[in-house]
Amino acid sequence: MPCGSRKLDHPARAADMYVGSCHRACRKAAEALCPDRLLILSARYGLLDLDDVVEPYDTPHGATGAITAPVLLEQATLRGIVCLDPVVALGGARHVDLVHAVWPHARTPLTGTRGMGEQMARLAAMRNSPVG
Protein backbone atom coordinates (compact mmCIF):
# COMPACT_ATOMS: atom_id res chain seq x y z
CA MET A 1 0.00 0.00 0.00
CA PRO A 2 1.21 3.54 -0.59
CA CYS A 3 2.63 5.91 1.96
CA GLY A 4 0.95 9.29 1.61
CA SER A 5 1.80 12.96 1.61
CA ARG A 6 0.30 13.65 5.05
CA LYS A 7 2.67 12.50 7.78
CA LEU A 8 3.45 13.07 11.42
CA ASP A 9 6.13 15.70 12.09
CA HIS A 10 8.33 13.42 14.20
CA PRO A 11 9.89 9.96 13.90
CA ALA A 12 7.33 7.18 14.27
CA ARG A 13 6.50 3.61 13.34
CA ALA A 14 5.51 3.33 9.69
CA ALA A 15 2.10 2.10 10.89
CA ASP A 16 1.58 5.48 12.58
CA MET A 17 3.55 7.87 10.34
CA TYR A 18 1.06 8.20 7.48
CA VAL A 19 -2.11 10.02 8.56
CA GLY A 20 -3.78 10.98 5.29
CA SER A 21 -7.23 9.75 4.31
CA CYS A 22 -5.98 7.90 1.21
CA HIS A 23 -3.38 5.95 3.17
CA ARG A 24 -5.90 5.12 5.89
CA ALA A 25 -8.43 3.91 3.29
CA CYS A 26 -5.77 1.78 1.57
CA ARG A 27 -4.70 0.37 4.92
CA LYS A 28 -8.26 -0.62 5.88
CA ALA A 29 -8.83 -2.24 2.49
CA ALA A 30 -5.51 -4.07 2.70
CA GLU A 31 -6.27 -5.33 6.21
CA ALA A 32 -9.68 -6.59 5.03
CA LEU A 33 -7.84 -8.87 2.59
CA CYS A 34 -6.22 -10.62 5.61
CA PRO A 35 -2.75 -10.68 4.04
CA ASP A 36 0.11 -12.80 5.32
CA ARG A 37 2.22 -9.65 5.21
CA LEU A 38 1.34 -6.00 4.85
CA LEU A 39 3.99 -3.57 3.62
CA ILE A 40 4.00 0.15 2.97
CA LEU A 41 5.79 1.41 -0.13
CA SER A 42 7.40 4.65 0.97
CA ALA A 43 8.45 7.06 -1.76
CA ARG A 44 11.58 7.77 0.29
CA TYR A 45 12.45 4.54 2.08
CA GLY A 46 10.95 1.84 -0.14
CA LEU A 47 9.46 -1.22 1.54
CA LEU A 48 8.51 -0.70 5.17
CA ASP A 49 7.13 -3.13 7.68
CA LEU A 50 4.54 -1.55 9.95
CA ASP A 51 6.97 -1.55 12.92
CA ASP A 52 9.84 0.14 11.06
CA VAL A 53 10.58 3.55 12.60
CA VAL A 54 11.12 6.30 10.04
CA GLU A 55 11.78 10.02 10.00
CA PRO A 56 9.21 12.29 8.34
CA TYR A 57 10.06 13.34 4.78
CA ASP A 58 8.69 15.22 1.80
CA THR A 59 9.76 13.11 -1.18
CA PRO A 60 7.09 12.21 -3.74
CA HIS A 61 7.46 9.23 -6.09
CA GLY A 62 9.64 10.18 -9.04
CA ALA A 63 11.45 13.04 -7.27
CA THR A 64 15.18 13.22 -6.57
CA GLY A 65 15.91 10.93 -3.65
CA ALA A 66 12.80 8.83 -4.21
CA ILE A 67 12.89 5.04 -4.25
CA THR A 68 13.72 3.51 -7.63
CA ALA A 69 12.73 0.19 -9.16
CA PRO A 70 16.28 -1.29 -8.86
CA VAL A 71 16.50 -0.36 -5.17
CA LEU A 72 13.00 -1.72 -4.55
CA LEU A 73 13.98 -5.00 -6.22
CA GLU A 74 17.09 -5.17 -4.03
CA GLN A 75 14.97 -4.58 -0.90
CA ALA A 76 12.49 -7.28 -1.92
CA THR A 77 15.35 -9.68 -2.62
CA LEU A 78 16.94 -9.03 0.78
CA ARG A 79 13.58 -9.59 2.49
CA GLY A 80 13.08 -12.83 0.55
CA ILE A 81 9.76 -11.70 -0.91
CA VAL A 82 10.50 -11.44 -4.63
CA CYS A 83 8.62 -14.66 -5.36
CA LEU A 84 5.48 -13.74 -3.42
CA ASP A 85 2.21 -14.61 -5.10
CA PRO A 86 -0.36 -13.24 -4.85
CA VAL A 87 0.63 -9.61 -4.44
CA VAL A 88 -1.96 -6.85 -4.26
CA ALA A 89 -0.80 -3.26 -4.80
CA LEU A 90 -3.04 -0.42 -3.70
CA GLY A 91 -1.96 2.95 -5.01
CA GLY A 92 -1.68 5.29 -7.93
CA ALA A 93 0.15 4.83 -11.22
CA ARG A 94 3.67 5.65 -9.97
CA HIS A 95 3.23 3.33 -7.03
CA VAL A 96 1.88 0.53 -9.23
CA ASP A 97 4.69 0.98 -11.77
CA LEU A 98 7.27 0.42 -9.02
CA VAL A 99 5.44 -2.60 -7.69
CA HIS A 100 5.16 -4.10 -11.18
CA ALA A 101 8.94 -3.71 -11.62
CA VAL A 102 9.34 -6.28 -8.83
CA TRP A 103 6.07 -8.22 -9.07
CA PRO A 104 4.78 -8.02 -12.68
CA HIS A 105 1.88 -10.31 -11.68
CA ALA A 106 0.66 -7.99 -8.89
CA ARG A 107 -3.08 -7.30 -8.81
CA THR A 108 -3.83 -3.58 -8.90
CA PRO A 109 -7.46 -2.99 -7.89
CA LEU A 110 -7.26 0.80 -8.27
CA THR A 111 -6.11 0.71 -11.90
CA GLY A 112 -8.65 2.37 -14.15
CA THR A 113 -10.07 4.68 -11.50
CA ARG A 114 -10.55 8.28 -12.57
CA GLY A 115 -9.58 10.25 -9.51
CA MET A 116 -9.48 10.17 -5.76
CA GLY A 117 -13.24 9.90 -5.28
CA GLU A 118 -13.46 6.78 -7.41
CA GLN A 119 -10.40 5.30 -5.69
CA MET A 120 -11.91 5.90 -2.25
CA ALA A 121 -15.18 4.27 -3.35
CA ARG A 122 -13.32 1.23 -4.67
CA LEU A 123 -11.29 0.98 -1.45
CA ALA A 124 -14.49 1.16 0.61
CA ALA A 125 -16.00 -1.63 -1.49
CA MET A 126 -12.88 -3.74 -0.94
CA ARG A 127 -13.04 -3.09 2.79
CA ASN A 128 -16.69 -4.11 2.92
CA SER A 129 -16.37 -7.10 0.57
CA PRO A 130 -12.69 -8.11 0.34
CA VAL A 131 -13.23 -11.32 -1.62
CA GLY A 132 -12.54 -11.01 -5.36
Overview of this structure, please?
The chain has 132 residues and is mostly helical. It is 38% helix and 9% strand. It contains 5 helices and 4 strands, in the order E-H-H-E-E-E-H-H-H. The protein has helices spanning 14-17, 21-32, 69-79, 93-102, 116-128; strands at 12-13, 39-42, 46-49, 53-54. It has a two-stranded antiparallel ribbon with strand order 1-4. Helix 2 runs parallel beside helix 5 (116-128) and helix 3 (69-79) crosses helix 4 (93-102). The longest helix has 13 residues, at 116-128. The protein is globular and about 35 Å long. It starts with 11 loop residues before the first strand and ends with a helix.
Largest sheet features: 2 strands, antiparallel
Coarse shape: globular
Gap between N and C termini: 18 Å
Show unreliable segments. none
Strand content: 5-15%
**Over the alpha carbons, how many angstroms does the gyration radius reach?**
14 Å
Helix-strand makeup class: mainly alpha
Helical percent range?
25-40%
Number of strands: 4
Number of helices: 5
Output the strand order for the largest sheet: 1-4
N-to-C SSE string, H for helix and E for strand = EHHEEEHHH
- What do the pLDDT scores average to? 92
